[in-house]
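Hey, I'm writing a tutorial for new members on how sequence and structure tokens pair up, and I'd like a real worked example in the thread rather than a made-up one. If someone can provide the structure for the chain below, I'll link this post from the tutorial.
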Amino acid sequence: MKPRIGVLTSGGDCPGLNAVLRGVVLAAEKLGWEVVGFKDGFEGLLPPGEFVILDRAGTDGIMSLGGTIIGTTNRGHFIAKVGAGDRAVVAADVIEKARGVLASIGVQSLIIVGGDGSMTTALQLQEAGINCIGVPKTIDNDLEATAMTFGFDSAVAAVADALDRLHTTATSHKRVMVLEVMGRHAGWIALHGGIAGGADAILIPEIPFDYEKLATFINKRSAGGNHSSMVVVAEGATPKDGQQVLHQTKEGEYRFGGIGDVVAHELAARTGKETRCCVLGHLQRGGPPTTLDRILGTRFGVQAVQIANEGHFGSMVSYQNYQVQHVSIADAVNRLRLVQPSSQMVQTAREVDISFGE
């Protein structure tokens, strides 16, 4: 039997996952390896094992598809629980069951494609003696260990497209349009998407905003003849002396979302202008990846196989200075890359008269 390498996609879906899978398959084929794709994230590792053999024919044409052909989940037995010392811990018996499945089908190493939580799980599997390679995935682009993650460019494109469409309504009705986008802790999507889509104001978690100053900014625009305004707000944006907006689900969890409606209500009351809110939501995650994300996903998949071939287990693929390299998973987890208020991107936005509500 050919040497086997496993791959799974974990956490939220995003454009570019299939490009990674295709890259893994084609790179592994050159080494004479067989690729086992575990279904629905880490859950596929549990007995009896839910997997499919991925080959050239099965991955032909998938690069342009959104989502992941092997499925994913952000729930289940591998969701790490926070224990002593704030270290997330996966139950030992769960890890042992996964080890048994991997051994039974001859998988010698595992490529794990996911975000910070998935990398935390990958680290524990590695520490338990299961050879793991991490591939960072998040549309939020907020992992410190890599300059860019695939899926981000596609999410930004979705924001820019939404702003283009909302702009026509805003100008026709002289309205203020508020667009709520993803970004719980980091405002990269809002910042890049807002600049690309010609937003007039951008509200991000890293820069607390003031409703009165934002309203004054919009009124000043109106006085100058600009009777419509476009406001992009990240779901984790926080007003000064205020709190992030969360809502409780029927499962008892608290999720971000709702700040857009609050901002729209406050601006309508303070400016007297007709104001509408649009929540972009999961539209940012769906659809085909941009050309940049197809290329980056392919490069990440190929690099993951090369790392495994070189025996650098416990490493995560990293994109720095236009080169795809690798770093230690241990050095990558729990380190978020946030927008710096003094950064060049923020300054660029200010120079084209974009307000951050300060």
